[in-house]
Amino acid sequence: MSDTPPPLLAVNNIEVIYDHVILVLKGVSLAVPQGSIVALLGANGAGKSTTLKAVSGLLRTERGDVTKGTIEFRGEGIRRKDPSEVVRRGIVQVMEGRKVLESLTVAENLRIGGYTRRDPDGVRRDMQMIYDYFPGLIERKDQLAGYLSGGEQQMLVIGRALMAKPRLLLLDEPSLGLAPLLVREIFEIIQKINAEQGTTILLVEQNAQIALGIAHYGYIMENGRIVFDGAADKLRGNDDVREFYLGLSEAGRRKSFREIKFYKRRKRWMF
Known about the structure:
- This protein is of the alpha/beta class.
- The protein has twelve helices and ten strands.
- The protein has helices spanning about 50-55, 85-90, 105-115, 120-135, 135-140, 150-160, 180-195, 210-215, 230-235, 240-245, 255-260, 265; strands at about 10-20, 20-30, 35-40, 65-75, 75, 90-95, 170, 200-205, 215-220, 225-230.
- A six-stranded mixed β-sheet has the order 6-7-8-3-9-10, sandwiched between helices. It has a four-stranded antiparallel β-sheet with strand order 2-1-4-5, with helices on one face.
- Helix 3 packs parallel to helix 6.
- The two termini are about 30 Å apart.
């Protein structure tokens, strides 16, 4: 018998259909071990965000449905559970696009993140923890969130999600639209949160280079399927991953569009 504990999250062969017609996910399976950072990578439209919404129960808001397969969290099925029930079980998703509550202050946004909690002392301690991770927010705690910069808003939505004390944090494109220095800062904090708080993270990213720099394991998606997976350090060293997903040739230079256009002809991973 294996001594390996079951994963915190297990997605098994799921299919997702939108509007009863459009097949978006085509048998996706992945596992997220307790305490890990797992990166889900791929180009825009590959199905990464749809996978997160299948887990968090948000597909219904977009007329989507998990029609096949299973989703288990801590050994219990959560497929088609209401999003509020998924949150109560310990899964919190940070949506793409920095969905702050613009007319509320930074502090009010954070307090809303902990609205299901019944431990006011713990809420106060965790707000201070968020300010420790994101010092820029404490200077703006009484400022309306709509006036924050893009980077500050990203820090706020991550902090707001942490206020719910998630067992599993789903992050959707945290680097989107941010300057490289801010991206590095936010990813360093994500790694720190995982290490210090033990928060398990499933990270969706197009920036494979930086995502694999903090992840323990990675999956690569294409056209609604997982086409490659492995330990993050092995993915970073894989020639095909380097060439087609990190954009680097063997010589370490950025691949041109003309060179990349041959990708479909020599791809080895299609089912």
